[in-house]
Amino acid sequence: MKTIYSLKTVLIVVSLSSFLFACKKSFLEVSPKGKLIAQKVVDYDQLLNNLSVLNIDANGEGPMGDEVAAVDPYFSGTDLRIQRLFRWEDIVYEPSQYADEMIVPMRNIYLYNKIINEVSGAIDGSEEQKKSIEAEARAGRAWTYFLLINYYGKPFQSATAANDPGFPIVTEADVTHNSFTRASVKEVYDFIIKDLTAAIPNLPTGIRHRLRMSKGAAEGLLGKVYLFMGESGKALPLLTAALTGLNSLGLPARLYDYNTNFSSGGAFFPMMFFGPNYPLPQANEEVLYLKQASLPWTLFDNMLVLTKEAADLFDPADMRLKFYSAKAFSGPAYPNGLMRKTMPAGVQYGVSLPDLYLLRAECKARLDDLAGAKSDLEILRKNRMPSTNAIVPDGIAAQKISLLKFIIDERIREFALLGYRWFDMRRLSVDPLFGAQSYTHKLYTAAGAVKDTYQMKPERLVMRFPQKVMDENPGMQNNP
Distances from the Cα of 377 to the Cαs of 386, 401, 467, in angstroms? Predict the structure, then answer.
């Protein structure tokens, strides 16, 4: 796609200015127009410290989850893009706009391709160093393609994936390449698995910053990929490996115990005027691999809120409720039991411990290890509420389908308003144990009356490419 590179080239040059100061002045002076020059191993290593690798500016999945509602007048005054996403409209962007879901991810794919293709020829450094940096780039590219295929490709089904249109696979850092076609969903998933399988043996077990990829994080990511493909048997050992290798990470890695962290002297205490004193992303000990995007509907803005149905999923003693407010920021109380997310102000959806525990619990339940699934669930829940409230009821824990539904509900409790839900809606729509569901969004007046109801079409479990991309790539097929 011409769009991918014509736009990306400009953005890379701008973004790299934030960290190229670490290289020699001559590094900048000899860089030809439209290209980036790296020569030494340290140069390629520095490329992975780019803030745009961390801040991906893609959050379109957030307004599309079914745990989300909206309230006027806040909603009508917000960004048109968020309104269209919430209404599950076919067209989200104006004809002159690129998609936020593509701009930074495609810039990062260019960066990863450059490292993968060139670092082996660096003029210094050991072979072990070069392989490690290449492995990080491969794993980063895999994470990015996993995001993109979940935006623009249909949910993975083994019977149809080879024919379902996916996303263009780009492996060269070539700004002159201008002919792109969509690979199939299967081809993209095979590409992701190939990258991660090649990367894992050469990745470090310990890292110096959470934006860098470790072996354990890559194993967890690959396990998630397999689960999204319906391959629980392949996913389980990888998720287990990720969770058992935490002591080798080199950085603190643990679930926060909300029972103590919300008490006096705890990590989230004191409560501030906008919400809990939540740790900064780079210090978040629940994060193994840091990828983040800002969420304008948390903290100060009021346009998207938690539905009453989702709020009712929480036990009253669940400490996660402390991350919500029944009142609009600097405004009155919401009607009908709706709640605003206060913190965190961004989504962490690289590789995180809560996600890994819930994914492993789901794998175990699907493989009929109900006791193991219950144990993983309770490890997380005991860190979110008092132990007596955290126990999964026996009647639920003894039945596979009931337990699976409880796990999926736990994912809502853990990740509500953070964007995870739309991805789960996608994969569950082709799961024979769950099947297609009907989803609606409601827009309320300030008094609590339903102003509008929006029904999601099945087609909106996949995003459409913006018209600007299609105009510049006339041979490429768009989604319905």
Answer: 14, 15, 43
| Between 343 and 451, residue with greater pLDDT | 451
Residue 8 CB partners (closer than 8 Å, separation 6+): 103, 106, 107, 110, 175
Residue-wise pLDDT for 320-348, tens only, equals 999 999 999 888 899 999 999 998 877 77
pLDDT at 270: 66
Residue among 249, 229, 257, 239 at smallest CA distance from 290: 249
Spatial contact of 154 and 164, defined as CB atoms under 8 Å apart? yes
pLDDT at 153 over 70: yes
pLDDT of residue 166: 98
Burial of 478: CB neighbours in 10 Å, binned 0-12, 13-18, 19+? middle
User: Whole-model pTM?
Assistant: 0.91
- Give CA separation, 451 vs 6, 75, 76, 304, in Å: 42, 11, 11, 15
User: Residues 146, 357, 365, 400: is their CA dihedral positive or negative?
Assistant: negative
Residue 464 CA neighbour count, 13 Å, CB half? 22
Spacing of C-alpha 59 from chain mean position = 8
Comparing CA positions, the residue from 285, 282, 288, 194 lying closest to residue 245 is 288
Cβ-based neighbours of 97, under 8 Å, separated by 6 or more: 466, 468
> Who contacts 189 (Cβ-Cβ below 8 Å, separation ≥6)?
149, 156, 161, 225, 229
* pLDDT tens-digit readout, 372-402: 999 999 999 999 999 999 999 999 999 999 9
Distance CA 53, CA 104 (A): 8
Cβ atoms within 10 A of the Cβ of 56, count? 23
DSSP single-letter state for residue 99: P
Which one-letter DSSP state was computed for residue 176? T
